[in-house]
Amino acid sequence: ATSFSSVLHIAPMVRLGLWGLKTPFSKFQKFLDSVKPKRSRHKNHPGEVPMMEIVGRDLHARGLHVARMMSYDNVQFQVVPVDIPKDIQMAYDRAVGLQWAILHAIETAKDNITSEGRIVFRQSVYWAMNQRFFKAITCAAKLELTVEYTKRLIKNGHSVVISLWSTGEARSKDRYKQDEMIGKEEHILIAEEMARHFIVNAFDENKCKLEANKRYLRDIKTQLLKKLEEADLSKFFNPIDYLKQKLGGADKVAELTARDKHWVEIYDEGWKFVKRSEGGDANVNLYEQKAFQSGQKRVAIISSAASTGISLHSSRMNPIRGQHKRVNIVLELPWAADAALQQMGRIHRTNQLHNPVYLTMVTELGGERRFVSAVTKRLESLGALTRGDRSASFAGGDHIDGKSVFEDMNWENDHGRKALRLVGMNLGFQVTQYGKKRGEVNNHHHLGTAAAPDSKDVLAEIKADEAMGGDKAENIILPCVQNREIKTASDLELSGEFMGMIQVFDAAKRLQAALKEERPMYSGTKESRLNQMVQGTLRVLISEGLGGQALFESFPKFANRILNLPFKWQQRIFDFFVQLHIEVVAEAKSNGTYVPGVVDVKTLGAKSSKLIRRSKIFENKNDGAITEHVLIKADYGLNFEEAKKLLEERRAFIASAVAQRNENLAAPPSPRDDDFNESQQSKCGGFIVDEDDYYDNGSDETYMEEEEEEDDDDDDN
Predict the structure, then answer these.
(1) C-beta of residue 239 within 8 angstroms of C-beta of residue 189
(2) Which of 207, 531, 617, 668 to pair with 168, CA 20 to 30 A apart?
(3) What is the DSSP letter of 138?
(4) What confidence tens digit (pLDDT) does each residue in 426-450 have?
(5) Concatenated DSSP letters for 270-322?
(6) Residue 673: pLDDT over 70
(7) Are the C-beta atoms of 554 and 506 separated by less than 8 Å?
(8) Do 406 and 395 contact (CB within 8 A), yes or no?
(9) Distance of CA 565 to CAs 76, 235, 559, 633, Å?
(10) Whole-number Cα distances in Å, 373 to 311, 466, 599
């Protein structure tokens, strides 16, 4: 099912005829540069995935590629929302403050250490650590609900596979070297170790020769390590260790990972970190697999190491007690869609007794949607890559009336980019239609450090953008103001947990000064002032800690970096983005510009279809493969039998309503009946029935119109 999702996957396949003699590409390198060029060469290139879709369709048309995958009919998919409790929200705000402190420390060091060329503070390295850091935190925030679901599923007679992608083994070995880990009482906190590893290595004084620089870096490192202790990230456990402890330990939970050590509870000694196999047996995962498949263990935790080549499904070959229905709780999605399909395929295989169920845990953190969106986009394209049809992959949608359970989470498209531009423009930044930075709307110093562009150039750029369909900024009321989550200015205060962590390297002073400069500018109604305050606060937070207007260049960058906003503020900006995205899609559908991609007309409800026109676009001279354009007319109306049935049901309803009216007229009038004209109206089943709505001058012909109203027992008048 995942034969080639990248051009590199077909590099050894010379006989496909995609490159070589009598082809447009003399060698593979030229073919590679065409499908996956460097960005500097082709800025308007659609990208590798769309190009590979074209390649896949070409290979299918020529009969050179066949890909098969199991049907996902009757396989259940569900996204489980995870609410974040108050104590975790506070811990999250401290984690955000810690990341701000690290970022400002990097900026401070870059400004003060300039005499030694060996010291290079690259923000790209920081943002990579930052992304892994928050991925570990969001994964840890789901553990409590995962344990609750797992226990409930086991009680109901199911076996559970909990899938994640990373184990944190590298950071564990950094903290404790080899056998020194054995016998340690404290657990490894992956997010904390990631931050510690970055601080120790980024601010290593041994990289400097000058003593002054050594002292400076040593001081920064000391302050940051102190802040790391203050952050208290003890709420964010290592997922595998936590799950095994809460679900009965190693005797009841099978672990199929690449870890060579794990936590076990030893009698009279407590929890110890020991080798998974006392003899160092490399086949420990095979023993764990057999224990799960035989029913000896009802829970299995798998990572990337066990995502290919093994079977964990309810096979007919399993012992009776190992044939329970499988439920896969997806705790952490991998980065690549083909890897996600491989991992999910462990419990969906041939010769299975029961179709599996997939539960994907997603927190209310807006930034986590980045990970889901990235995988969803690739899942939807995998159908076109492997079978020449976007709807072929389960995420593209043949399991729930043609609609993917992840469909509403794919924002990496034109509509998502347009909504993102609108968010930036309403917050005081401006970005052109294609994400190119345009400059700031106002002259506040905290909106960026780059020199302001020439006003004439900006005006010309805006006009050109609008001429090409660009967006105009409007002062839209944010959802947090509309739903009255923010009622007073005090609701705008940043949390004490966050502010306490950034009391270092003048980060808090800069932030407070920027907020103070914004506040006197607000005017208008109370709602308008509150809205301006929210916009101003978000503008300052984005400028001081998220990279300014660069945040709105792409959805991946936007979702990655808003993880660095305090919990409530992250929700506010993401809710705003979702609101605008819904409006953008609705507008596109209303004006006929919405493009859903490849769809199945029958899945969308077409009663019949008719071929209107078929024309040849291109013919391959080598093998005669033809590319055609086909125009199909689909009828989504009612056939005669359905219309007749609907008419009979309507007539029966009218007859019942008239009979009820006559019965009410014959009965003595009640005080409530005096509220309306008895000669024309009657109460029927909670509705007020007017005979003239159904009959025209005594005619027996009925109208096919009816206003749908709620049947409210209290609305008798």
Answers:
(1) no
(2) 207
(3) H
(4) 888 866 554 444 443 333 333 333 3
(5) EEEEEESSTT--TTHHHHHHHHHHTTS-SEEEE-GGGSSS---S-BTTS-GGG
(6) no
(7) no
(8) yes
(9) 34, 19, 11, 49
(10) 27, 28, 20
